[in-house]
Design a protein that fits this description.
Blueprint lengths: L1 H8 L16 H13 L3 E16 L3 E15 L4 E10 L5 E9 L2 E6 L2 E6 L3 H8 L2 H9 L1 E11 L2 E10 L1 H18 L24 E10 L5 E12 L1 H4 L6 E14 L16 E5 L2 H8 L5
Length: 296
């Protein structure tokens, strides 16, 4: 159960900057990448997410290491999408796999070998969820980015940007990380960490945490080719500004996503074994927890 709860709660390289001259400034690049994303018809993506959380107090030391591999395909012309997740608990080698399909205004999930058709109240919003590119480009737009060089990504010359998200986005990233640490903790943590009563402004968490965004945008097409999110979070009673028995949680998260095959044929079909399915109603909170994506 702990493994599954952590699962649903979840979702910089050093180079010598090249000479940039005055080719383009960051605001122009943000605007051009947004416009390019709006005109995309098809694309594919792959993502690797790694999470490491260390728990300690006077009596225990425990570590939780998770890795999630994701791939996906989006066809906006056909209004169809597909993604596949594989999550591995590195300590005990447990693996969970699941897939999602959106076709003909319907959504299907495959969890293990079990198929489910989800009862949707807003199919258009679901398709917007599958089309994750605008939200990732939006994350760049809502971050304080600097142009730090150029780099070749799989044969494509790209501008490289690096920076930090604006405060509301930073709190979103750290809040997801905090919630995941809370659910997976072997330590009895204070009730104030419950997301219904928690407030960053009452703590020193922002002073003891860090979130960085790195992005690679094609010089030729202004399309996003890679985005990396790195986040680290440290929690102690003094950081939380509370009186509790001593404990410490140190959590790191790295997520790297590559986008490819813009405009290439992208056929998405439901496998034949989906005929034996059940029906379920599901809320948006579960969907976004599994996707692990950030929206400004």
């Amino acid at each position: 159960m702990k493994f599954y709860l952590v699962l649903i709660a979840l979702l910089s390289l050093l180079i010598i900057p090249a000479a940039l001259g005055q080719e383009i400034n960051v605001d122009q690049l943000k605007e051009k990448s947004t416009q390019s994303a709006d005109n995309v018809t098809t694309y594919t993506y792959t993502r690797t997410s790694e999470s490491n959380t260390e728990y300690s107090n006077d009596t225990l030391e425990e570590e939780l290491v998770l890795e999630k591999d994701t791939e996906g395909k989006v066809n906006l012309t056909a209004q169809a999408g597909w993604w596949s997740h594989k999550l591995t608990d590195e300590e005990n080698s447990d693996v969970l796999t699941w897939q999602g399909y959106y076709l003909n205004n319907s959504e299907y999930w495959k969890e293990g070998q079990n198929w489910t058709k989800l009862n949707l109240t807003d199919p258009k919003a679901v398709m917007e969820d599958y089309n994750e590119l605008p939200s990732q480009v939006g994350l760049i737009s809502y971050s304080d980015m600097k142009l730090v060089g150029t780099e070749n990504i799989d044969g494509t010359e790209c501008y490289k940007l690096a920076g930090t998200p604006l405060s509301p986005i930073e709190k979103t990233v750290l809040g997801m990380q905090l919630f995941a640490s809370y659910l997976g903790s072997p330590i009895n943590l204070p009730d104030d960490l419950d997301n219904k009563s928690f407030s960053f402004d009452k703590t020193w968490l922002l002073d003891n945490s860090n979130v960085t965004i790195t992005a690679w945008i094609s010089k030729d097409t202004s399309l996003l080719r890679r985005i990396e999110i790195d986040s680290d979070l440290t929690i102690t009673p003094s950081i939380l500004n509370i009186e509790e028995p001593n404990f410490k949680i140190v959590s790191t998260l790295r997520e790297v996503t590559n986008y490819e095959n813009y405009g290439a044929p992208a056929q998405i079909t439901l496998p034949s074994d989906a005929e034996n399915l059940s029906y379920r109603t599901k809320g948006a909170d579960w969907r976004w927890a599994v996707f692990g994506l950030l929206e400004p």
